[in-house]
UniProtKB/TrEMBL annotation:
Catalytic activity: ATP + protein L-histidine = ADP + protein N-phospho-L-histidine
Name of the protein described by the UniProt record: histidine kinase
GO molecular function, one term: phosphorelay sensor kinase activity
Domain of life assignment: Bacteria
Phosphoprotein listed as a keyword: yes
Keywords: Phosphoprotein
InterPro entries per record: GAF, GAF-like_dom_sf, HATPase_C_sf, HATPase_dom, His_kinase_dom, HisK_dim/P_dom, HisK_dim/P_sf, Sig_transdc_His_kin-like_C
SUPFAM superfamilies reported for this sequence: ATPase domain of HSP90 chaperone/DNA topoisomerase II/histidine kinase (SSF55874), GAF domain-like (SSF55781), Homodimeric domain of signal transducing histidine kinase (SSF47384)
Taxonomic lineage from the root: Bacteria, Pseudomonadati, Pseudomonadota, Betaproteobacteria, Burkholderiales
Keyword GTP-binding assigned: no
Residues annotated as domain Histidine kinase: 206-437
Annotated PANTHER family: SENSOR HISTIDINE KINASE (PTHR43065), TWO-COMPONENT SENSOR PPRA (PTHR43065:SF42)
Length: 444
């Protein structure tokens, strides 16, 4: 611990001055500040005085009978007026340097550990009066006051170092957090893309299911017609009655009607699917009829709606042509209707979903999707558009549906979206978007 206490050059300079003045006032060749080292004692400061045999940073071994050793061991003042006249002192090592008189006091750290000594030595016999002794004590106290400062500085440095360490640790964990955040942001982007694609995926599933009926009907009819043709061919050889011929012809006629209807339905579905798929997979701007677009979307949602057992009614103003981005609008509608089917009616029973769309006086289009289900608790209302907010965690909820709605309405369609709900009274999502989207669509 003692070794860690470093004395800065500022203090050494100050003590040099003190020691110089001290040597001058005491009228001695040597004023010294000594510092104890393990096993040794070092001249830390030596007065710049004529005839001073001590040089700073000189070291002497301990246990050799030095004056200073006694001062440090007894922690008290030592006054040797003339070592040559003193049996105990006449052979001490400083006598070899001709320093025969000594006055010294110990220097102690604030925690009472020995720092060293401060002393004056002379080559002449000296009998110091009390005021000199008092003066030496004063100087000692001044230097020990500096020790307090040194110790405070050291403590500050240590706590500063630990602050720096803590800071480093914070910086590191900050970097870790940043990396984690980057990862989450990337993941979120990935999930958003996935959610958008899954809207398309559910459309694909819906369309395939929807096509099954007309194509299946068509197949069945075609094979009936085929077997009827085989029968009539046989009868033609054996001689066919007029009645059989008429039955065959009316059968073909009816079958063709049904076939035309089925294939027409299939062709319509394929056409709307083609449109939806193109719109959904691109951010294409075009003019489109509002009512027809809503009809196409509902056609693709047909199977999901029928499976849910709830009723969906759609009331769209006729003759409204939008010039905007149909893909995002379709995605919004699909997500809102799906949410109503999934979240609004958990207890089963017959629910109702009402979709309306109309043109407002300010040339915006207002679309609303309302249900008469359980509604959204007050506490959740502010959070439903947040990414990853879902009340169906682990049950297929991603919490991204309404986030996609919000994004598409605000950035692609340049409108706004609101939700109103009271528990038990259903939920209503209302969006208002420009009929003609502004140029320069917000980039995604
Ligand atoms: N029509 C609705 N009725 C009741 N709650 C709804 C309705 N639509 C959305 N919510 C609530 O909003 C939450 C967030 O919806 P969404 O972002 O689509 O995520 P997800 O459908 O994956 O849960 C849902 O978990 C649900 O709690
Ligand atoms: Mg959803």
């Amino acid at each position: 611990m003692v070794e860690q206490r470093i004395v800065s050059d500022d203090f050494l300079g100050k003590w040099q001055q003190t020691t110089n003045v001290m040597a001058d006032v005491f009228d001695v060749p040597a004023g010294l500040i000594m510092r104890v080292r393990p096993q040794q004692i070092e001249v830390l400061v030596s007065s710049h005085t004529p005839g001073n045999p001590y040089e700073a940073y000189e070291k002497a071994n301990l246990n050799t009978g030095l004056y200073c050793e006694t001062v440090m061991a007894t922690r008290s003042l030592l006054h040797v007026p003339d070592a040559l006249e003193d049996e105990h002192w006449k052979n001490n090592p400083d006598v070899a340097l001709n320093m025969i008189s000594y006055l010294g006091v110990p220097l102690l750290w604030p925690d009472d550990e020995v720092f060293g000594t401060i002393c004056v030595l002379d080559s002449k016999k000296r009998n110091y009066q009390q005021r000199y002794v008092d003066l030496l004590w004063e100087i000692k106290r001044a230097i020990e006051a500096d020790f307090q400062v040194i110790e405070q500085q050291q403590k500050l440095m240590i706590s500063n170092a630990s602050l720096l360490d803590a800071n480093q640790a914070l910086l590191r964990s900050n970097a870790d957090l940043k990396a984690a955040l980057d990862k989450i942001v990337a993941m979120q982007g990935e999930l958003l893309r996935a959610e958008k694609m899954s809207a398309l995926g559910s459309l694909v599933a819906g369309i395939s299911h929807e096509l099954n009926t007309p194509i299946g009907n068509g197949l069945m009819l075609a094979s009936t017609l085929k077997s009827n043709a085989v029968t009539i061919a046989k009868e033609l050889e054996a001689g066919v009655t007029r009645k059989h011929m008429q039955d065959f012809i009316s059968g073909v006629d009816q079958g063709a009607d049904i076939l035309l209807h089925s294939l027409g339905r299939a062709a319509d579905l394929v056409a709307s699917f083609k449109q939806v798929a193109v719109d959904q997979s691109s951010m294409r701007r075009r003019e489109f009829d509002l009512r027809k677009t809503f009809k196409d979307i509902l056609a693709t949602l047909g199977p999901a709606i029928r499976k849910s057992g709830h009723e969906v009614v759609c009331d769209v103003e006729e003759g409204v042509v939008m010039d905007s981005y149909p893909g995002p609008l379709e995605q919004v509608l699909v997500n809102l209707v799906n949410n109503a089917l999934v979240h609004a009616f958990p207890e089963g029973g017959q629910g109702h979903v009402t979709i309306t769309a109309r043109r407002l006086a300010d040339d915006r289009i207002e679309v609303s999707v309302a249900d008469d289900g359980v509604g959204i608790p007050e506490a959740n209302i502010a959070r439903v558009f947040d990414p990853f907010f879902t009340t169906r965690l682990g049950q297929g909820g991603s919490g991204l549906g309404l986030h996609v709605v919000y994004n598409q309405v605000t950035s692609a369609l340049r409108g706004d979206v609101q939700v109103e709900s009271a528990p038990g009274c259903g939920a209503r999502f209302t969006l208002r978007v420009p009929r003609v989207a502004p140029l320069d669509p917000a980039s995604h």
